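Why does residue order matter? Because the sequence determines the fold. Keep that principle in mind as you read this record.
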Amino acid sequence: MNTLNFKKITSWILGLVMVFSLLNQPHALAQVETLPNLTPSTSAPVESPIVLPAESITANVRRLLETNECVGCNLNGVSFEGANLQGANLESANLQNVKFEKANLQGINLKLANLQGVDLGKANIAQANLQGANLFDADLEKANLQGANLEGANLQNADLEKTNLTNANINGANLRGAELEGAIGVFGRV
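Structure:
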């Protein structure tokens, strides 16, 4: 087998390995890294962008559990059901479709976090910072948001049924389409 064909096959196999490793981490962020590639016509190295996986969701979960902090990280779809993440710092994190049902999130920092479609049912989120967070279509039924900062948060279409919002800051929050039946708020029951 000549050297050019061997290099083509090696490059092709390397590409397949990278694609399958990306498929194995469907929710991980990706970064672009330039790697040399050979063109068939010239056999000269040419720079071409190849997408490689960044830090995996598993590594992000490990970092959060070890340090109680994961600013800006991707935890899309992870289940923290019943977990104790009291005082954790998840500012600007991607928490889309995460399950926090019955979790202790008291004092957590979720400022500017993406919590779209998240399950926070029956979670303790008292004194949490959710300023500017995206809680579109989130399930907060029977959650404790007592004293939480929801200033400027997007709660559009969120389920806040029987949620405790006593002393919560909801200034500038988008509550369009939110389910508020039985919610306890600043002015008593809604």
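The longest strand covers residues 30-38.
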